[in-house]
Every structure is written in C-alpha cells, then in structure tokens.
Amino acid sequence: MPRPRLLSDRVCAFPDCSALFRPLESSHRYCSPFCWYEDRRRHAIASLSQRLWERVQRCPHGDCLYCCWPWLGTTNKLGYGILKAARQMFFAHRIAYSSVHRRAIPSGLLACHHCDNPPCCNGDHLFLGTKRDNYDDAHKKGRTVFPMPLHGMNNPAAKLPYEQVHMIRVAAESGMLQRNIAQDFAISQTTVSDIVRGRRRKQG
Predict the structure, then answer these.
(1) What are the φ and ψ backbone dihedral angles of 98, each rounded to 5 degrees?
(2) Contact assessment for residue 51 and residue 83, using Cβ atoms and an 8 Å cutoff
(3) How far is it, in rounded angstroms, from Cα 82 to Cα 90?
(4) Residue 88 and residue 65: Cα distance in Å, rounded?
(5) Along the 204 residues of the chain, how does pLDDT read in single tens digits?
C-alpha cells in the first residue's frame, strides 16, 4: 500500500495571519477554521460598497448635489437602510459616506443627513458629527421637541432616548455584535445587554 504523500508547508491565506502550516489536503489554504472564517468575513465586508450601489436609486441628472439617492433595499423602522455581511448589520448611509469620501468613519461619530431623509445615500447630503452635532442640526431645523438628552452620570435618570433603545434592539436582532453597538452609541456593553434582554424600557 503506497504511503500518503506529505504536502509541503505553505503560508496561511488570511493576510492578518500569514503563518506557516502543513495542510492535510492540497485544497487547504488556511491554518485554522478561525482564519478561514475571518478571511470570508473580510471579503464580505469589502464587497459592501458594490452591493450598496446596486440597490441605490441615483439621480437621473448624474452626480447631483440636490437630489436624494434613496436606498431601495431593507430598512429598519426608522427608515435607515441596512445591509448584512458576515452576520453583522451595517447602515447603508454610513457605507455610502465611506465609499464617496473614501475614508472610514471614526469610532463614535455619526453619518448625519443634511436632507433629513434616512434612506438617502447621496454622499453630498451626509456629514460627520457627534450625537450633539446631530441634535443641534435637528434643533435648528425645528425637528426637536425635547432638549438634548444627557447620558451617563450627567443624566439623573440615566435612561436612553426611545429612538436609541429601538435602534440598539434592531442592530442586535440583525446580528451586530454587542461590543460594536456599545461603541456606536458610546455606552457600555452591559447596558446594551440589558436593553436587548428587555431590562430597560420595554417599549422601544
């Protein structure tokens, strides 16, 4: 009976690993299931921009500064477009901003709408800002009823607005990791877990 041929060492195909390993079969490209999954996840996220523009209705005038470009795919209850990749949820307008302006959105900042149209993905209608900037913009346009909510120790009641509670639950139900949700909303992961389990504000 012929002895099985031993394959030579090769470099793991996952760019963040690049470790040497000896594959059991010639088709094996990754040193571990973790690297295989993470590389698939990386490709899925990289393809978000292409998937986004396939579902956006661009203005017939070309790269128009004035017309909204609505997202035609799935939206959440607040009207914001959402895409899923690698078991995570991404907001369409945030991907649009990164795609048009060719830079990532720093952690803790929002992609805000000049046009106040949640499904709009026109990069010229989007600007980066904090939650305070977003509130001030809405206040100037007369779209606010209550004062800017205080967060954390600055808020005697220590409660989140209903809209944010709802967005947190939608994000969690769509598969977004709780630690990523906590970063986006500048709260602790424990708070996110409490909201998801219904321990805070049963009406979101």
Answers:
(1) -65, -35
(2) yes
(3) 6
(4) 31
(5) 555 566 788 999 988 888 899 888 888 889 988 888 888 877 877 788 889 999 999 888 777 788 999 999 999 988 999 998 877 788 999 999 988 888 878 878 899 999 989 999 999 999 999 888 888 887 787 766 555 554 443 443 445 666 678 788 878 877 788 888 888 777 888 888 888 887 654 443
Helices assigned H by DSSP within 20-140: 33-46, 48-54, 92-101, 131-140
Q: Does an H or E element contain 20, and which?
A: strand 20-21
The single-letter code of the amino acid at 31 is: C
Tokens describing residue 90: 């991404």
202: tokens are 């049963």
Q: What are the structural domains, with CATH classification, of the chain?
A: 47-146 (3.90.75), 149-204 (1.10.10)
Q: How far apart are CA 1 and CA 82, in angstroms?
A: 57
pTM of the model: 0.56
For residue 201, give both structure tokens. Answer: 């504000």
